[in-house]
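By way of example, what follows is a protein record of this kind.
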Amino acid sequence: MEQDDPAEALTELRERRPSPLELLQVAAGSGLAVYGVWALLLQPGFRRVPLRLQVPYVGASARQVEHVLSLLRGRPGKTVDLGSGDGRIVLAAHRCGLRPAVGYELNPWLVGLAWLRAWRAGCVGSVRFHREDLWKLPLLEDKLQAELPAGARVVSGRFPLPTWQPVAVVGEGLDRVWAYDIHRGGPAGQAVPGPGSASVLGTPNSQTG
């Protein structure tokens, strides 16, 4: 029996066009893979989020993380990331000395991924991630204004707070972030000198969040 020449077989495979059935099988397989990612990573975080606020999860880019840290530079104290996704902003804040750094995220798979990233970074005992449904708190602006200390800074990524006026805006497009300072006895958004804690609002997708 003659053995097939590997070179000839490879050439035949390259020149051969897939049949419509084969293309359909590839498309179906790709669709199942995408659905698997959706079911495991994204769907758990969408179940409790208001429909009008649901947008696909997109992790913070390196540039967005840089913008967030630039708005928090020189402000020691606790950092809280609301809608922390895979934890990259929490870990970056910890490395920059913004400690303790804590993340809140609704999606359990993303919380697990955040802990994995913390373990790989060697700081699993220094940061914290909690699975929390922030949509139980419908008036987030009022809660932040009431509970954060004077001088605290709120940084929102990709989506600004509806009724607050930012003290600084950095970046463009999906990498844009807004900074707001908590001011007792006046509207949020006014600059307040001195250190304070920081709160980072993630994109309304993973906590959404």
Remarks:
- The beta strands are 79-82, 101-105, 127-131, 153-157, 168-170, 177-181, 198-201.
- Confidence is low (pLDDT under 50) at residues 41-47, 49-54, 191-195, 203-209.
- The first strand starts at residue 79 and ends at 82.
- Residues 20-46 form the longest helix (27 residues).
